[in-house]
Amino acid sequence: MPEHYLKQIKGQTNALRFLEAALKSGRKSHSYIFNGPPGVGKRTAANWFVAGILCERPDDYVPCGACRSCRTIARENYPYLRFVAPEKSAIKINQIRDIHDFLKYRVEQSVCRFIIIDEAQTMTPEAANSLLKILEEPPHGTTFILLVDNLSRVFPTIISRCQVVNFTGLSKETISEILRERGYEEEKIAAVLPVSQGSAGRALELIEDESLQENRGKIISFLLDLPVTSDRALEFAQECSDLDISLSLGIIISCFRDFLVLGRGEKSQIINPELVNRSLKFTKNEIYKSIERIMEAQQAAGQNANKQLLLENLFLELNGLAS
Q1: Residue 138: cis peptide before it, omega within 30 degrees of 0
Q2: What is the DSSP letter of 57?
Q3: Distance CA 50, CA 312 (A)
Q4: Domain boundary among 114, 142, 166
C-alpha cells in the first residue's frame, strides 16, 4: 500500500485488506457500511476506496495518491461524488431526495458515481426508507458508502443490502503515534490518551482544549490524596460538576487501571506518568471494586443521571475504599 495512505489510515489493517481485495478482484459491492467508532479513519478509508476505483496509476490496484483522480478525490472535488452529513444532528428526507435527483441525471456508461453518507445511523425513518428504495434497485455504476458509528441504529433492511466493513477502536499506541506525527508534546498526549476512547478524532479535538490538562491534574491529585474527609470528597464533587462528566470519569478509570499496572510492577505500561513512584493506597481488591463503581457511574451518566449526585456518591465510595 502506498506510503501516502499508510500515513493517513492507521490501525485498520483488516478493513483495508478487505477493501484492497475488492479492488484487486474487481468484485465490488454497490453499497457498503463502514461500521466503527467515530474518529478511527472511516471517512479517510472511504476516500481511499473511491480513489482506488478511479486511480489512473494504481500500484497493484491500490491508489497511488498522486494522480489527478486521486488528488481530486482527496479534495472531494470529483463531480460525481456526493457527500451527505447530518443537518442539526440528523440526516433528513430532503437530503436523500437530493440524492434521488442527483442520480436521475444521465451519465456515460463508463462514469462511476459515489454517495458517501456520514453518520448514516442518524437518518430519520423517512430518510432511511427513501434510501432503501435506491438500494433495492441501485443505479448502474453507483457505489454507496454509509459511515456508521452504531450499527444497531441502522435499519436491518438497509444492512441486508450492504457489505459491512468493520473498523475498530484505535490502540493508545496508535493514537500516540498519530499525535506525535502532528507535532504535539508528550505532556499533552498523556493528557488526552486516557479519555480518547480509541478515537484519534476525539484525541485531536481534546488536545486543543487548554483546560483539559489542568482539570486532569486536579483529578489525579485528588485521587492521590485519598483518603480525605467526607466534606472534602463532597467539595471536590462540586468542583467537578462543571466539567464534562465523561471526560472526568475517563480520567478516573484510567488512573485505577494504572494502579493495577503499577501493582504488577509494569511501570512502562502506565498511561498517567504522574502515578509512577507514588505509593498505592488501594489493595488489588479495592482497585477492582473502585473500577466497578466507576463503570457503574459511566453507565448512569450515559442515562442522564444527576451529575452532581453521581459524582458525590462516587467520590464518597472511592474515599471509603481507600485504605
Answers
A1: no
A2: S
A3: 50
A4: 166
Number of domain units in the chain = 2
Out of 113, 141, 166, pick the residue that ends a domain: 166
Q: Cell numbers at residue 104, please?
A: 436521475
Strand, coil or helix: 198: coil
Per the domain annotation, does 116 fall within a domain?
yes
**Whether 210 contacts 185, CB under 8 Å:** no
- Alpha-carbon distances of 295 from 135, 191, 229, rounded to whole Å: 40, 20, 24
Q: Does the reported pTM lie above 0.90?
A: no
SS3 5: helix
Instruction: Confirm whether 232 is domain-assigned.
Output: yes
Q: Report d(CA 296, CA 227) in Å as an integer.
A: 21
CATH number at residue 213: 1.20.120
Tracing cell 494502579 back to the chain, one arrives at: 259
> What's 139's domain CATH number?
3.40.50.300
Which three cell numbers mark 6? 499508510
Structural domain boundaries enclosing 85: 3-166
What is the Cα–Cα distance from 46 to 298, expressed in whole angstroms? 32
The C-alpha atoms of residue 261 and residue 259 are separated, in whole angstroms, by: 5
> What would the pLDDT profile of 259-310 be if each residue is shown by its tens digit?
988 888 888 778 787 888 777 788 889 999 999 999 999 889 878 889 999 9
Is residue 188 assigned to a domain?
Answer: no
- The rounded distance, in Å, linking the Cα atoms of 252 and 290 is 10
Could you give the CA distance from residue 259 to residue 275 in angstroms, rounded to a whole number? Answer: 8
Collect all residues with Cβ–Cβ distance below 8 Å to 176 and sequence separation of at least 6.
Answer: 189, 193
